[in-house]
Amino acid sequence: MDIIYPARLNPGDLIGITALASYADPVEMLRSTEYFTQMGLRVEIGQSLFREYGYLAGTDEERARELNDMFQNPEIKAIICARGGYGTARIADLLDYDCIKHNPKIFWGFSDITFLHQAIYKNTGLITFHGPMLSSLNNRSLHPLTLAGFQQLFSPIVMEYTEEISTLTSIVEGTASGAVVGGNLSLIVSSLSTPYEIDTRNKLLLIEEIREEPYRIDRMLRQLLQAGKLTEASGIIVGNFHACVPNTDQSSFTCEEVINDYLKKANRPALAGFDIGHCSPNIAIPLGLEAELSIEKKTLLWKRPAVI
Predict the structure, then answer these.
(1) 278 an active-site residue?
(2) Which segments of 144-203 are extended strands (E)?
(3) Which of 31, 36, 242, 256 is most buried as measured by Cβ atoms within 10 A of its Cβ?
(4) Given the residues 66, 208, 209, 212, the one annotated as active site
């Protein structure tokens, strides 16, 4: 499959904001759009930000139609997700992947958006971005590195992650190369045995999670190990596992102990400590783009810019 690179943004470009999963509080989301106007961008707000359908931001058909329309619209140069939560797997079957492939543009989000990153990459080859959403920006003490991640959309920056950003810890030694894939662990596991199942063969697998107890992390990593997804990967990138702590009423392994156990079983080069995911800062990275993971140097270096 040929890789498709989205075009970079320029000042004055129009970006679309859409809620593809859970209901998003429009007041909070609209407040966060000021960051994009300060970057010199124009903003189009999708109707999904004003819809509330149970725990979703509109029906599946409404959310899928909005995303399809934003890809189809030649004036919109990037699509930024408002928030995650739950619901993107419900619309994967309704997306027009032929339209996305022939109208490539920046697609940005994380958490529940992981399912769509996988679906879009698998069906089109489009490079997408695992990065902070509007819900992440609604914080007056926003970390500068979280906001700085958007700069890679404006210029052909070759992304790199070193210990200057956070302390990185070796789990399994070695060096590995491959396209970076993955994201939220729960969503990766939920893709198994579906048409959107993650392909980790010769790829660098990113995992991150929020508020899951260690035994749940254990269960998900066991499933990935038994499905061959850990051993088929060329290397593993461990992002932030926020608030993944055991119930204090029972004995437990720590989240770190569980992760280390499974990644040592997989015996693929693995490095932990990346501030990627539900954390501050939340470092934005491209998905689907070739990178090299060096455990000895404690670096993750992409091989070329993600935009053209």
Answers:
(1) yes
(2) 160-161, 169-172, 175-184
(3) 36
(4) 208
Which candidate in 32, 48, 111, 191 is catalytic? 111
Annotated active-site residue 62? The verdict is no
Residue type, position 255, single letter:
C
- Whole-model pTM: value is 0.97
Model confidence pLDDT, tens digit, residues 56-113: 999 999 999 999 999 999 999 999 999 999 999 999 999 999 999 999 999 999 999 9
- Of 191, 192, 180, which is closest to residue 271 (Cα–Cα)? 180
Catalytic, 111? Answer yes
| pLDDT value at 140 more than 80 | no
What's the pLDDT tens digit per position in 146-173? 999 999 999 999 999 999 999 999 999 9
Helices (H), the chain: 26-32, 34-38, 60-72, 97-102, 114-124, 134-137, 144-148, 185-190, 214-226, 229-232, 255-266
